[in-house]
Amino acid sequence: MEPLIEIKNLRVDFALRSGMVRALRDVTLTINKGERLGIVGESGAGKSVLGFSIINLISKPGRITGGQIIFNNQDISKYSCEQMRKIRGDRISMIFQDPMMTLNPVLTIGTQMKETIHAHRNVSDKEAEAICLDKLRKVYIPSPEKRLNQYPHEFSGGMRQRIVIAISLLTNPNLIIADEPTTALDVTIQAEIMDLLLELCETENMGLILITHDLAVVSEVTQRIAVLYAGKVVEIGPTRQIIDNPRHPYTQGLIQALPQMAGGARRLNQIPGMMPSLRDMPSGCPFQPRCTVRIDKCLHEIPLLTAPEDGSQVACFVRQGGM
């Protein structure tokens, strides 16, 4: 398959008063055209930082300090703000967690959608409106002609998120980054939004990076999963393979912590301890303080991802070479 975007040894640092903190540690990923990749991990693993890095939306004092982000044969990690504006919201779109933080409450939906189109396309207002209506229909917004003249507060949470998705589709992007797109929604609406994203990826042949802590959602929507821990990719492979046969102890812990894995009235499994602070990372493998299968080597050396094995890679001295 042809790569859509290649992330190579990406490093992101935050300059704090207490010193430099590394949020992403040599992250390497490839997303192919039309592929759906899930990024999973606990809060603080670096999932959102990775998403923001791709479109250069990291707030100061954070910055990319190493590696490459190759898109259309160009390293966009080195692009200026002006150069990134031509890609961000055009070739690469992002869906954020809270639609009310994305939409301007004092502008109608139509005004906000048209502004997006005019920022990237030289079209008339009538042509822009036709594009808006088409995208609203694609995300199943009823009476789109009427909805264009309404304000965000006149929509439910699920409808607002559909509008945000419609805005992300306006320029027919190659890639959509969805950062916890269903966090603020109830369970039934979550399922509708994820079904919609899946349908749009298949019909529009868009790539999707789905950032979430919900393994159940990822297992239904994505084709591959990358597991992040303390800013590093510790396991990556086909979704079904990761879910059915996780090799890294951290991935195993995440899956065993799902309610359906406990069953009946048994207590939920949980990973002991907490993710280390980025200011005080342990020596060796970052997961070793919480790991139940660690060996001496884990205390002093950082494991690297293995070469692809059945499409799967793992960064674990104990698990390398199989279960």
Helix-strand layout with pairing:
Layout (H helix, E strand, L loop, with lengths): L2 E14 L2 E14 L3 E5 L6 H8 L7 E10 L2 E2 L5 H5 L6 E4 L3 H4 L6 H12 L4 H14 L5 H4 L9 H13 L5 E5 L7 H18 L2 E5 L3 H7 L2 E6 L2 E7 H6 L4 H8 L2 H4 L50 E2 L9
Parallel strand pairs: 3-8, 3-9, 6-7, 7-8
Antiparallel strand pairs: 1-2, 1-4, 4-5, 9-10, 10-11
Q: How would you sum up this structure, described in words?
A:
It is globular, with a radius of gyration of 21 Å. Helix 8 (187-204) links the parallel strand 7 and strand 8 (207-211). The chain has helices at 47-54, 81-85, 99-102, 109-120, 125-138, 144-147, 157-169, 187-204, 215-221, 239-244, 249-256, 259-262, and strands spanning 3-16, 19-32, 36-40, 62-71, 74-75, 92-95, 175-179, 207-211, 224-229, 232-238, 313-314. The model has no long low-confidence stretch (mean pLDDT 90). The protein folds into 2 domains: 3-222, P-loop containing nucleotide triphosphate hydrolases (Rossmann fold, 3-Layer(aba) Sandwich); 249-323, no CATH class. It is built from 12 helices and 11 strands. The strands form 2 sheets. Strands 6-7-8-3-9-10-11 form a 7-stranded mixed β-sheet, with helices on both faces. A 4-stranded antiparallel β-sheet has the order 2-1-4-5, with helices on one face. It has 323 residues and is an alpha/beta fold. Its main location: membrane.
